[in-house]
Amino acid sequence: MRSFASDNNSGVHPLVMEALIKANTDHAFGYGDDQWTEEAIEKIRETFTPNCEPLFVFNGTGSNIVALQLLTRPFHSILCAETAHIYVDECGSPVKNTGCQIRPIDTPDGKLTPELILPHLHGFNDQQHSQPGAIYLSQCTELGTVYTVEELKAITALAHQYGMYVHMDGARIANAAVTLNVSLKELTADCGIDVLSFGGTKNGLMMGECVIVFNPSLVKEAKFYRKQSAQLASKMRYLSCQFTAYLTDNLWLKNATHANNMAQLLYKELNKYPDIHFTQKPETNALFFTMPRPVIDKLLESYFFYFWKEENNEIRLVTSFDTTEDDVKGFINALKKI
Questions:
Q1: Contact at 8 Å (CB) between 184 and 54?
Q2: Cis bond before residue 52 (omega within 30° of 0)
Q3: Among 249, 278, 297, residue at a domain's last position
């Protein structure tokens, strides 16, 4: 069944599957001491910066847990948008594993700004209060919006001024890079991001993410947090080999470009209907809009998608690297009939 529910629902890109099959050869040392992991680490350092430390993990929540444990201690607080994945969708695992308070900040578009963050930067050195320790950003955000390079630099400068760290959740960072027409390095290391959760599952990988540590002062302890978080894979080659394929010949870029283009095509068609009202600027591969509930219910008979805010009939549609023009046309034709 084709759907616009999530880019998590898409399959595995053939080149990634080919890499997995090639890695499934003979025996190999476990826990990352294999040629595929070494090759992937080199590829990541070539893409981002030579001094970074890549740590392959099983999934997105795991990558966020590893990163945030590395950046904080239990007496810290973690600042994030109220729509942030760590606050809404991870079942409290960041709180359980870090011991930190999460302080959600209300935003109109899912994006933090220095002005929104500043009122929460108080109580430093006061033993009665959780100490602001880290800022969590999603790029792109849970609302499909994108932080510009300048916006990211402003946030990291503020954080570092107060002795804090910045963690970027890059589950859909490829889509953001396409929108901004910048490299992955320009969007992370060059902006002063301390740790990145580099995802690809939503853009053609089968599984896994990579925690990339940019701040050299954090490298020494990173591997221990990965192990304690149950994120050290014994057969790591099946995680790491995917990233080599993903970063070769700009596969990540091609996939994300296609997904974004399909979203724009879908947006162009949906925008023709006066009863459809977009709630967020369509910048990447996710569209957020409201439409009459009877129309939604009828569409759900043929296409699966999620409500974002059911109380006001807001839904989310997400395109993927394997979304086709026929998928878009089929959805629009179903809408026309209704």
A1: no
A2: no
A3: 249
